[in-house]
Write a structure and sequence with these properties.
Layout: H1 2-25, E1 40-43, E2 48-51, E3 60-68, E4 76-81, E5 85-88, E6 97-105, E7 118-120, E8 125-132, E9 142-144, E10 149-151, E11 160-165, E12 168-172, E13 178-184, E14 204-206, E15 211-216, E16 222-230, E17 234-241
Antiparallel strand pairs: 1-2, 2-5, 3-4, 3-6, 6-7, 8-17, 9-10, 9-11, 11-12, 12-14, 13-15, 15-16, 16-17
Length: about 270
């Protein structure tokens, strides 16, 4: 009798632990990850690079990236990734996009939209552009950002031209245009916005290799150039040009503000 009771007790214990394991295997996780933080964007030419801080939850499977044409508008899913960065290759130059990111776990739970307020306005850019000293080569001394082309220095579309005056090199603009030396930069992307003041009263600045210059064109557009090489006859530079009139964003990263929680049922997938 004692042997039978012991066997029965063991059987009950086995059944109990088996039931526990079965229940564990069917445990449902309904808790979504936290919204991603530290969203940043980098303007490009027909593209926007988006990055954020990785979530700390161990069960995060990936991230969804959304965009909207207005901050409070409807957000449309444009892609998913398991990394903490995404490139929007479908962005159009001259269009403003607001971006938001969500995190999702292996059970399909998705966080709220990220709270950072970020937008980008992609714009055209160019590299290794050359113009020449207007005194010796007047037909190839000016540059038109609107036309993306070299023009005569006094052409009505000329936004900036190059001058070698007795061995000192200048970038020169006309009376209806402004220019400002923003100092040395590592590349063309280092200056995020056009300045609100500080424009050169003389309508010219000394050209220096490695310096970036912001130009406020006659038709209320902003551009910037970064000088990469200078010789007595020519100057070489990289450039960006903002297509949206009056838009000061030249590179991009806007942070700050709080996004209200948006019902994910209203998002476009």
């Amino acid at each position: 009798m004692k042997t039978k009771l012991t066997f029965l007790a063991i059987l009950i214990l086995i059944t109990f632990f088996t039931a526990c394991n079965v229940n564990d295997s069917y445990y449902e996780d309904y808790t979504p990850p936290a919204p991603p933080t530290g969203i940043q964007v980098l303007n490009g030419d027909g593209r926007v690079d988006i990055s954020w801080n990785p979530n700390r939850e161990s069960d995060v499977a990936g991230y969804n990236v959304y965009y909207s044409y207005t901050f409070e508008g409807r957000y449309t899913l444009i892609g998913s990734t398991s990394n903490n960065y995404f490139i929007d290759f479908g962005a159009s130059n001259g269009e403003k996009y607001y971006y938001a990111v969500t995190a999702y776990d292996y059970n399909g739970n998705e966080s709220d939209l990220s709270y950072d307020v970020v937008y980008a306005v992609p714009r055209p850019e160019g590299f290794n552009q050359t113009i020449f000293d207007y005194r010796r080569f007047p037909n190839n001394a000016g540059y038109s950002f609107a036309n993306y082309s070299v023009v005569r220095y006094d052409d009505q579309n000329s936004d900036v031209f190059f001058e070698n005056y007795q061995g000192t090199y200048y970038l020169v603009v006309w009376d209806d245009t402004d220019i400002q030396d923003m100092g040395y930069t590592n590349d063309i992307y280092d200056i995020p916005f056009a300045p609100a003041s500080g424009w050169s009263p003389s309508k010219d600045v000394i050209a220096k290799v490695g310096h970036t210059y912001v130009i406020w064109t006659w038709n209320n557009h902003f551009a910037k150039i970064r000088v990469t090489n200078i010789t007595p006859d020519r100057i070489v530079f990289d450039w960006t040009y903002q297509l949206v009139e009056g838009e000061p964003m030249l590179k991009p990263s806007v942070k700050g503000g709080i996004r209200q929680q948006i019902n994910k049922a209203s998002l476009e997938r």
